[in-house]
Amino acid sequence: MPSANGKIVTWCYLFVHHTKVERVNEKLKERFNTFIHKSIVYKQVKNRVKKEERPTISGLLFVQGDNCDIQRMLHEIDPALYLMNDCSTHRTAVIPDRVMQAFIQVSQMDENRIRFMPHALSYYSTGHPLVRVTSGVLSGFEGYIVRISRDKCLVTSVGDITVAIGGIHKETFENIETYAQLRRKEQNMSVSSSANASDCWREDIKQYFFQPENQLDVIVMANGLHRWIAEACRWMNAGNYMDAMDVACLILKTIGLYFHSAYANSQLSRLKDIWSVCQEANRILVALTENQEVPADVKQRIASERQDLSVCYPFLFLKNE
Questions:
Q1: Which InterPro entries does UniProt cross-reference here (predicted)?
Q2: What's the whole-model pTM score?
């Protein structure tokens, strides 16, 4: 659904009490596109089995449109209704239209291909390859290949919802970590092993960096770093403030180091993927600064680190429009 100016509008979502879903959905459909993921269930009714379609997740409702306009209408319908926030940014969770359309298309082909997962996407990173789908309906999706109930699945994120999409055997993939390793090898770069096991995450982050030479390089680096942004958010929410700060600062410093020349390179002018990582890392630092539970010495160090970054790499904090 394009807006008045022809721009493709994103999607967002909310949870509604199951008794109100139908009424809220009908009201929203007067102005917006909506979608409810449904599954087929079978019930024993007397002497026969009855096939029934029902929402997969009770009360989950996707809506396409400007999130401010949607929220205003929700307030008119019921003041208690709110769009869901992204847990890492604490802002309304937004789903690009291309992602949502692929999600809807897969659901329409076979609703049972999609499973809603109980954990955040970062939970599935251990022991599973990070890939980018390069063919089929899901082309452009990133996630982890996980075998669930003998089915090869892509575990990915739709907004802030983790889903596993099964039946992906015919799709082709690009292993992001392997690509990064090959690019580092081509540039004669290596990552030294840390003697301290608790600091091994530093080397893990640095392995995604190399001198960017094309758009794919930028995308690969950004995709690899999003996993560590999610991990930093998890640490922050768990009260591990120092490590969350260190991850965000290391990501910003290393992006500054590798992208200061690319920033002025017209051939790499489309750097929105990596700027998105910068903004997310910066939001973590801001959130830590505003959190009353974070110790004063940590906040002081954050202020010092951000000051140094703004002097050495001022472009890191520019929003990419």
A1: NGN_dom_sf
A2: 0.60
